[in-house]
Specification:
heterodimer, A: alpha/beta, five-stranded parallel β-sheet, elongated, B: mainly alpha, ABC transporter involved in vitamin B12 uptake, BtuC, two-stranded antiparallel ribbon, 2 strands, 73% helix, globular
Chain lengths: 393, 337
């Protein structure tokens, strides 16, 4: 009797994947750690795309896309690698939507992605280092690289007629990467970076840092940092000592709490935020509201990442990463019918019929070179104590 | 001539003014550390958290005052709340002494055991503070923000460089001056102060002459609590209040106390300013100053910065090491560690 029971269990386990025809997709995000407030909505957005594709009945001949969540922790490479390993070996995911932060994404890609040949599409890893990493064509991302962010920052600075800057960055991968990129692009355009200095977050006093920055002789200070931490301290100390009055800010500095904390002195300063105002994003935001969650940062990118994975599978006619990886560019870029959020069913149908699509999605997806988005940026200026979008780049 | 003036104003704005304020805060902190060392003979590592605790009580009362529409314009309202903060910190010190340190006093424990005990007190107090007010940044400064703004100064004088003096910087320096004066008067002129000095110099002789040791210890804790609260609140007003930052202050405060000579009040004051100005002078970039002072064409290309600001805290370390190597008793010959 016991033997029979075991045999039944064993055979049903073997048979399960074939019968249900589920396609498992990993959702590897930092549900705990520094971006734990963003991760739930990112996962929900990715799962919304999976549900949309499954409900249409057109995905892989009527298959269901099933989400398998795991915690990347955002900062602990070993934990993220173990989680990804488990996803692939014991859950059997076909592809991974993730990881999120640049450091863990690199680790997972090297130890699991390329080692096991699994496609990874990250919604939020922005480190320039990920552009050049050997990935066997398996890694893509729907957020722009900070290399692009630095270039746009340099162009906007030049466009505003600012030919000399002081530059300070928060002392971590994000700060250093973006600051290097800003400096390189800006100097290539003929700008002069008079002084570069890092700052540590969570110090009480930034007057020494500001004193050093002020001695370069520039009127403009570019701050790559965080609005609730060192970046704000640098800004306050600059205003207090009269060292700088004009600031340019990275995406980490933009948020309503900054003008509230600094006050009227911030008016006229500006910053760059990844993203564009697009038709696709408006549709996504509406869909998110109907599904009962808010379109917080990187949730749109998560939706797009999950959608790209499923569309590439459909185009390849297989959930095998080695086959679908070549199709990611095809479905993301022209030519083909333009696909917005909420049109996944239509897109899957076109692909099933042998047609071509150009996935636009929530974030105007257009993949370039190493499998990343070209990246749109919004230029926001502080006016009357509020960040207001003035231009799209 | 204007070039020389510009150079002077530049240095005043970025080195002299912040150095005076920061030095005053360190001096008040070091004074508290030195008092405890003189009387109880141990390095009180919990001092940073005592500063934080006093500042926290002050902030809570300040919020209450602000909500009640009471202010101290043009000075920061927190100054009105300061006495409450002092009471809070003194209560904390006395309770901790009663519950913790008294036991070790009766055991006649060595100073290294006291040191370890004070680490425990530091961690528990730190946890308590974060439990009550949270780990976040609290801004409490209100009233007039500047005594003089950089831009106003430029317009007034027609110079290229501005000089900014914040109200909190002015308040800090004046308050430190008054408090230090009071402490010296107390130690040198009052009977209790003299008793404390006697106890510090020679415990056995002091006991023989009828000085009550528990009373001396109690007064030392009261003064430490008050000094810590004043230093902590001034630091919080001048920068911003964040519980974590007070633990980072421990190093420069101890460096200040040791440089001046532990157990010596004058040493603590001098040490505070030595450490503050060393940090600023060594990490300052002198390019612009030299541009004003040197003839045209001889201005340097580089930043002329001895040490990057990243290493600011290393300056305190280096001073500490040098003093301990060369003159372990400090400038004013305090007790040897």
């Amino acid at each position: 009797m016991k033997k029979i029971a075991m045999a039944v269990v064993a055979s049903s386990m073997l048979a399960a994947p074939a019968m249900a025809a589920d396609v498992k997709i990993g959702v590897l995000l930092g549900f705990t750690g520094p971006i734990e407030s963003l991760a739930p909505n990112m996962a929900t957005a990715a799962e919304m795309a999976m549900k949309e594709a499954s409900d249409s009945g057109n995905f892989m001949g009527g298959s269901t896309a099933v989400s398998v969540r795991a915690d990347s922790t955002c900062v602990d490479a070993a934990a993220a690698t173990a989680a990804a390993e488990r996803m692939v070996t014991s859950d059997g995911v076909a592809a991974i939507m993730g990881a999120d932060c640049s450091g863990v994404t690199t680790a997972v890609l090297q130890n699991v992605g390329t080692a096991k040949g699994i496609v990874m599409i990250s919604p939020s890893a922005t480190s320039p280092a990920l552009s050049d990493i050997p990935d066997d064509g398996l890694f893509f991302r729907t957020a722009p690289s900070d290399a692009r962010g630095g270039q746009v920052m340099a162009e906007v600075l030049m466009g505003r007629g600012i030919d000399s800057i002081a530059l300070t960055y928060t002392n971590n991968d994000y700060g250093k990467g973006l600051a290097d990129s800003i400096q390189g692009s800006y100097e290539a355009l003929g700008g002069k970076v008079t002084v570069v200095a890092s700052h540590e977050d969570d110090k009480g006093d930034y007057s020494a840092e500001v004193a050093a920055l002020a001695q370069g002789g520039s009127d403009h200070l570019v701050i790559v940092g965080y609005l609730d931490r060192g970046g704000k301290g640098i800004m306050q100390a600059s205003l207090d000592s009269g060292a700088f009055e004009n600031f340019a800010m990275s995406d980490g500095m933009i948020g309503p709490s900054l003008p509230e904390a600094i006050g009227a002195d911030l008016n006229g300063s500006w910053g760059l935020l990844p993203g564009g105002e697009s038709e696709g994003y408006d549709i996504f935001a509406k869909m998110a509201a109907e599904a009962g969650f808010e379109a917080t940062p990187y949730s749109a990118e998560s939706y797009d990442s999950a959608a790209l994975i499923m569309l590439a599978m459909q185009a390849a006619g297989s959930s095998d990463s080695q086959k679908m990886k070549a199709k990611v560019f095809d479905v993301a870029n022209a030519p083909g019918t333009k696909i917005h959020p909420g049109e996944l069913g239509k897109a899957l149908k076109i692909l099933a019929d042998g047609g071509e699509i150009d996935y636009v999605g929530a974030r105007e997806i257009e993949l370039i070179g190493p499998g990343e988005t070209g990246g749109a940026y919004l230029e926001q200026v502080v006016q009357d104590g509020k960040f207001t979008t003035v231009k799209s780049h | 001539m204007t070039d020389v003036l510009n150079a002077i104003v530049l240095l005043a704005n970025f080195v002299l003014v912040p150095g005076l304020a920061y030095g005053s805060q360190l001096a008040l902190g070091a004074l508290g550390v030195t008092l405890i060392y003189g009387i109880l003979r141990f390095s009180n590592l919990a001092h940073g958290e005592t500063m934080s605790f006093g500042a926290m009580v002050t902030i809570l009362v300040t919020w209450g005052l602000q909500a009640g529409g009471i202010n101290f314009h043009p000075l920061p309202t927190a100054l009105l709340a300061l006495p409450f903060g002092i009471v809070g910190a003194v209560a904390l010190c006395l309770i901790v002494d009663r519950l913790v340190y008294r036991y070790y006093r009766q055991q006649r424990s060595t100073s290294s055991i006291y040191l370890i005990v004070s680490i425990g007190v530091m961690l528990i107090t730190g946890g308590l503070i974060r439990f009550i007010i949270g780990p976040g940044d609290r801004k409490i400064t209100d009233g007039e923000r500047f005594i003089i703004k950089a831009r106003t100064f430029k317009e007034m004088t027609g110079l290229n460089e501005g000089l900014a003096i914040k109200t909190t910087q002015g308040v800090t320096v004046i308050a430190a001056f008054l408090v230090v004066g009071f402490v010296f008067w107390f130690l040198n002129r009052t009977r209790t102060g003299k008793a404390m000095r006697a106890y510090s110099d020679n415990e056995d002789l002091a006991l023989l002459s009828g000085i009550n040791p528990e009373r001396v210890v109690m007064i030392a804790w009261i003064m430490t609590g008050a000094l810590a609260t004043i230093a902590g609140t001034l630091y919080g007003l001048d920068k911003s209040f964040k519980p974590f930052t007070y633990m980072q202050l421990l190093l420069p405060i101890f460096a200040a106390a040791i440089v001046g000579g532990v157990g010596n009040p004058i040493g603590a004051i001098v040490g505070g300013f030595v450490v503050a100005f060393s940090e600023l002078i060594i990490t300052f970039a002198y390019r612009k100053v030299l541009m004003y002072l040197l003839p045209d064409g001889m201005a340097p290309e580089g930043m002329i910065q001895l040490l990057s600001t990243d290493y600011k805290f290393a300056v305190s370390f280096v001073i500490l090491v040098i003093v301990l190597l060369v003159k372990p008793t400090g400038i004013f010959s305090g007790k040897s560690l």
